[in-house]
Amino acid sequence: MKNTVQSSWIVDQDNYFSRIDKFLRNALKNVPLSVIYKLIRTGKVYLNEKRVKEPSAKLEIGDRVEVRNEDLSKYTREYKEIKPAKISLDILFEDEDILVVNKPAGISVHPGKNINKPSLIEGLKYYGSQKGFEPFLVHRLDKETSGVLIVAKNRQVARELSEKISSRDVEKNYVALAFGSPRMERIDIPVDGQEAITHIKPVRKFRTKLDGKDISLTLLDVSIETGRKHQIRKHLAAKGFPIVCDNDYGDFRLNRAFSKKYNLKRHFLHCKSMSFDFHGKHYRFEASLSQDLKLVLKLLEAEGD
């Protein structure tokens, strides 16, 4: 007998997400993300009887979401249930609505395949269980990216903050070290078919020798208007200035030589600050560079003396 998988939902307080792609990712945990986006792209997802055209389509409480003309039971993606796990959290700020942490590199925001370390959300769930709240993520950072991560302490705050972030009412600033000599620029190359806007500004230039070659490096202030997956990394690589030690989008041999010389085990990207207005207050959160990134800059500065 074939397993049946739910293919229609009414959006309520308990299953609400502001975007339809996020809603389906949560509702269809057995379905790979690539398939969910394909369902949207091929017109098999409906919102209130109308075909959905964009993954970013907005949802409201009471909306009806359907997946039509697709056997969802054939998908068997494995997923890990999120269980509370005690981990050390570097808490930058906390009030009744918001928790802000300085995420370390090397820890995933969510559990994933072949990841044995507890994820950040599992650590947040443990902390929330001790303090009497349920954490909700409103944005993400890549596993190897460190810095400011904002967490909502209830579903309504999560809804409002997610809306604020997706409507670009949040300033998001990063620090990156890139190969080459980029100039101040607005980069607007689409990412995964969606609008993506990144602003880069050089802060300091360095020179070093790797594998016997003279190499230019630039420390960048980066701000983003949109938050696409790997946006900064993809944009800088597309412009010919990949982030140092980014093996997904950069030069593997150059990265290996840099990693060996400066003992850097991850890409040089850090979310330095986020700021926004919420419930009549102005919030600004800052996270200082982690020790591994500080050491790289110190060694590069010493070379230039």
From TrEMBL:
Catalytic activity: a uridine in RNA = a pseudouridine in RNA; uridine(955/2504/2580) in 23S rRNA = pseudouridine(955/2504/2580) in 23S rRNA
Active site (record annotation): 142
SMART domains tied to this protein: S4
MF (Gene Ontology): 23S rRNA pseudouridine(955/2504/2580) synthase activity; RNA binding
EC primary class: isomerase
Keyword Isomerase: yes
CDD domains: PseudoU_synth_RluA_like (cd02869), S4 (cd00165)
PROSITE patterns membership: PSI_RLU, S4
Gene3D superfamilies xrefs: Pseudouridine synthase (3.30.2350.10), RNA-binding S4 domain (3.10.290.10)
EC number: 5.4.99.-
Lineage top rank: taxon: Bacteria
Entry-linked InterPro entries: PsdUridine_synth_cat_dom_sf (IPR020103), PsdUridine_synth_RluA-like_CS (IPR006224), PsdUridine_synth_RluC/D (IPR006225), PsdUridine_synth_RsuA/RluA (IPR006145), RluA_PseudoU_synthase (IPR050188), S4_RNA-bd (IPR002942), S4_RNA-bd_sf (IPR036986)
Any GO BP: enzyme-directed rRNA pseudouridine synthesis
Positions of the RNA-binding S4 domain: 18-88
Alphabetized UniProt keyword annotations: Isomerase, RNA-binding, rRNA processing
PANTHER family associated with the record: MITOCHONDRIAL RNA PSEUDOURIDINE SYNTHASE, RIBOSOMAL LARGE SUBUNIT PSEUDOURIDINE SYNTHASE C
Cited NCBIfam families: rluA_subfam
Physiological role: Responsible for synthesis of pseudouridine from uracil at positions 955, 2504 and 2580 in 23S ribosomal RNA.
Family assignment from sequence similarity: Belongs to the pseudouridine synthase RluA family.
Protein name, as recorded: Pseudouridine synthase
Taxonomic source organism: Fervidobacterium islandicum
